[in-house]
Design brief:
single chain, 92 residues, mainly alpha, elongated
């Protein structure tokens, strides 16, 4: 596969400089960097580790005011079809 990448002049200069420190051409260095990145674990934006869905939900729910949390039904998880779709409550 051939890949053409447009870079600003300052980025091109930085790429060439880093390649020289490794004794590589800019193309060889770019290939090495891309291969390394594709072999490593994916990261979230800004270099933060990936979070599970549970982590995201817990973080979001921690921002809900206590008075709003108090109004939520205690059986909301087990009876979600009732609260979302209006279906009859299931037997416990």
């Amino acid at each position: 596969m051939t890949l053409n990448i447009e870079l600003p002049d300052e980025k091109t200069a930085a790429l060439a400089a880093r390649a020289r420190t490794q004794g590589l051409s800019a193309e060889q260095y770019a290939r090495q960097v891309l291969e390394h990145d594709l072999e490593s674990e994916p990261e979230a934006p800004l270099g933060q580790p990936l979070r599970t869905a549970a982590d995201i939900i817990l973080a979001s729910m921690s921002e809900v005011p206590a008075e709003d949390m108090a109004t939520l039904p205690k059986d909301g998880a087990s009876q979600h079809d009732h609260y979302i779709y209006g279906w009859p409550k299931r037997e416990p």
